[in-house]
Every structure is written in C-alpha cells, then in structure tokens.
Amino acid sequence: xxxxxxxxxxxxxxxxxxxxxxxxxxxxxxxxxxxxxxxxxxxxxxxxxxxxxxxxxxxxxxxxxxxxxxxxxxxxxxxxxxxxxxxxxxxxxxxxxxxxxxxxxxxxxxxxxxxxxxxxxxxxxxxxxxxxxxxxxxxxxxxxxxxxxxxxxxxxxxx
Amino acid sequence: xxxxxxxxxxxxxxxxxxxxxxxxxxxxxxxxxxxxxxxxxxxxxxxxxxxxxxxxxxxxxxxxxxxxxxxxxxxxxxxxxxxxxxxxxxxxxxxxxxxxxxxxxxxxxxxxxxxxxxxxxxxxxxxxxxxxxxxxxxxxxxxxxxxxxxxxxxxxxxxxxxxxxxxxxxxxxxxxxxxxxxxxxxxxxxxxxxxxxxxxxxxxxxxxxxxxxxxxxxxxxxxxxxxxxxxxxxxxxxxxxxxxxxxxxxxxxxxxxxxxxxxxxxxxxxxxxxxxxxxxxxxxxxxxxxxxxxxxxxxxxxxxxxxxxxxxxxxxxxxxxxxxxxxxxxxxxxxxxxxxxxxxxxxxxxxxxxxxxxxxxxxxxxxxxxxxxxxxxxxxxxxxxxxxxxxxxxxxxxxxxxxxxxx
Lengths: 159, 407
Hints:
The structure holds two protein chains of two kinds.
Chain A: H1 9-20, H2 29-40, H3 45-55, H4 59-68, E1 80-85, H5 88-92, H6 95-106, E2 119-124, E3 136-138, E4 141-143, H7 148-157
Helix pairs in contact in A: 1-2, 2-3, 3-4, 6-7
Chain B: H1 19-24, H2 29-34, H3 39-48, H4 61-65, E1 77-82, H5 91-98, H6 100-114, E2 118-123, H7 128-143, E3 152-157, H8 167-174, E4 198-202, H9 203-207, H10 209-215, H11 217-223, E5 231-238, E6 244-249, H12 254-260, E7 270-274, E8 283-284, H13 294-299, E9 308-313, H14 318-332, H15 338-355, H16 363-374, H17 382-396, H18 398-406
Parallel strand pairs in B: 1-2, 1-4, 2-3, 5-9
Antiparallel strand pairs in B: 5-6, 7-8, 7-9
C-alpha cells in the first residue's frame, strides 16, 4: 500500500467515533468514505483497500459500495465540480442550453475535467431545487435560476 | 418567503432554524405534552388524525407505528427518510433548512410512541447545506438536554443514489452496503435496520406530529379530506408563473394549486401536469379538477406520491419529457431485478431513437408491452414508478410520438 494513503491519528479517532454511532460499525462506511474522499481527493483502489481494513471488510465489498453511489469519484476530479441538473423541471426551464453553454465555455464534455485541473463537469439527476430551475450544484453550493451570464460569472469565480 | 398554516408556520422568521427561534414560536410544547402521555396513546392520536405518509406511499402513519411487535424487548430504531430525490420535489429541503427543530420534536414524540432510543436521519448526499443546518440543530438540542436523555439522533449522509429513497434501499445503505432494496416481508417494522424493528418515516410526515399532539387529532383530520388529514407541502415547478412550495389542505384541487402558483406560465395554455413527482402518471389539461390527496389521485389513475407538481404548457414536448424521465430511470435502476434493469435501459433506447427521428413503427407498442410485463414483478416500487410515466405519456399523447416516427 502507498504510504500516502493513511488517515492522521485525529482522523482515525473520528473513524472510531463514527463507527461507534451505529449498532454495527459497518453503518459508518459511507461517512468514512466521505472522509476519505475529502482527505485523498478521490477514492482509488488503494483507498478502498485502506478503508476496508478499517472495517475488516473485503476490498470487494467497499468497491461494490463505492461504484454504486454517484458522489464517490473513482478518478481524480478537478478542484471544483460543476453538476448541472438535467431532470424534468430543469429541462423545461432550458437546462439543455445551460449545459451546452458550460461545455462551450470549458471546452469539455460531461464527465471530463479541464486540462488545467480546475473544473470537472457533470450532468446529474434531480437535485430537488426545481422551484429555481435551471440549477446546478457547484461544489457544496446550489446555484439557482441559471442564465448564460450567471454561468459565466460562476465559472470565472472558480480558481 | 411563503408561509403556511401548519408545516410552514415558522418559515418567515429569519431565525426559524435555531432553537431560540423555534422555542420562541412555541416549539417543544408538544414534546412536553407527549412525554406525559402513554406511548400507545400517542400512536392512537396519530391514527385518529388520519396522517398519511408524505414521502410517496401514503401509508397511514399511526398504523405503521403500531406494527412494531409489542413483545420485542431489544432495540427499536426510528429512521427518517431525508433522501429527497423524486423529480419535482423539494419540500423536505425547506423543512431541514428552515425548521429543523420541528423534525427533531417530531422524532422525539415518534420515538416515545414506538419505544425507540436511537434515531437515524438519512440526508441525501447532495443536500450539504440542509445537512449542516440539521446537524447544527441536533447539536443545539443536545446542548439543551432535549436529546441524550433516552433518545439519540445520528445524522447520516447518503452518497448519491435515488433508490436509497426507497425505504429498504435506504436501510441497506444505512448498514454500509449498496442501496439494494430488500424483499418484503419481513417489513421494516418487524425486521429493519441492523435486523431490528424499524419505523421509517419521511421528514414532512414527522413534522406533522408535533402540531397533531398539541392541537389534537380532530383538528388535524378536519384540515383534510375524509381519508387523509392535514395540509401538506406541494412542490410546484415547471411552467407556472410562481414556482415554489405551497402548503395547502390535501383537499385542494390541482386546478386551484396551479392558480395558487400564479397560473400557467410559458404560452399560458396548459398541456399536461405531473401531479406527484416524476413517477406519477401524467394528467392532461382536462384532468386537473382532481383532489390532491392520496385517494383522489389514485382514483384518477395517477398518484400523489411526494406531491411534486410539474406543469407543462403547450410548448412542452411530451416525447422529450419522457426521454428525460426514461434516462433517469435507466440511470437510477439499482440493477437488482432483471425486469427493471433490462427494461429501463431498453425503453430509454427506444424513446431516444423516437425523439431523434429514427423511431420504428412498432416502438410505441413495444414500450407499452415491455412496461406492462415488468410491472409488479420486482422487489421494490421503483419499476412500477417508471411504468406510470412510460404508459401514460404514450397513451395520452400518442399522436405526438407518432408524428416523430413518421418524419
């Protein structure tokens, strides 16, 4: 295992705290994977094996979990993630044009990362902010009532 | 901010999400009352209120609580489904952000009724701000000794999967697995999270509980229809002039609700409405005099589901709308049951080629046939939820699909 893949003592204490919250410590697997992604940037096979060891689970079980959910990245992501909703309410409000605009501005397709490592672009299913469609999630934030101008300002602010 | 009579009563107050704000508006008085009541009496009160689950299935809440085996002596868990994800629904986001203590109070009361000492709140992974707001409220509640005195709350973040909104998929996920729904029976009330009796309730459902306890079951029942009590939060989006969340009696009609949201936007001429989230069968402009409760929508051949109302004006393309949903179901099928896994992908391909102008003459009948054959054959309700749109969009707007195929 790569020496880089290890939590700090403080993080290991947090892992144990999370595991103690559940009747079976495995309940903490998703939260610990979030912690791992925050720490290592993405979930590599090495990270999966490391996390598996913390739970005495097989790496295959952790891999099955990681690949099931959309929020775990299995390859390096950009410093920012722009996730444009393209479900029904956003579609009716013009999300197709918004997505095309973002692609054009960044010069990448959905699922790709800009060559400078700045932004990863995603098209995602309903984020449940349909009252403010079209919308996108930019890192932790919901950005609402998007227009091409607003998209330009948002992208410009991402460094 | 729009306010409402029961669930959205505190939304206009800037500090509605704080303990001080909630207490200032009379919060936790219902809990004071409930802790002096026998658990069974609380359940009876909720039964008498005609509260029905507001997450999607519409099951009577008090009856669900009563299914926890009386003879069980081990732990009982209360799990809150805050994995809001049904297309067109955004009400629970508002409750988590603007009135998190209402959910905590509802959980305290429900936990007493079902004799639970531990509750989990499963918040969808994308809801970072709602998760922070709710977690802060839980911390405040511990500080005020509302929690930690026989009932604890664990706030759990999901990781992105629509299927985890299905209650047994949610439980699998909570146990640290992929979110595969479980075969029922046993139902969660008998054997749920971590193999113990578990009650899974939606956020909005539990937020109804404090007002029921405080003001009485008869009052709550009287707000609604004969078979469903109360108000609920309708999420209204799409082509309306004032999209947003509206708290109304469940006796409201769809026509009145659209008016409440400012009327039809876009061209101003109504074409169709999705009345209860993406998985509800579509209604035409002639079908909107329906009462927006569980039974009203069921009798109209659709469902109220999560009460996510998506309005389409005449300029909206129904085949494109179905394409969006077909892609969604193909993407979100968990892959456990063959009919769902295979049909959602196949139907998406067929709708895709129809919209692209390469549809085949028999594609529409093939979609209907595939949809009908799979319905009712799977472990959970996901595929039945997909079948509603597949069939209704094509049956009610067939000429629009055929026009694309002929071209």
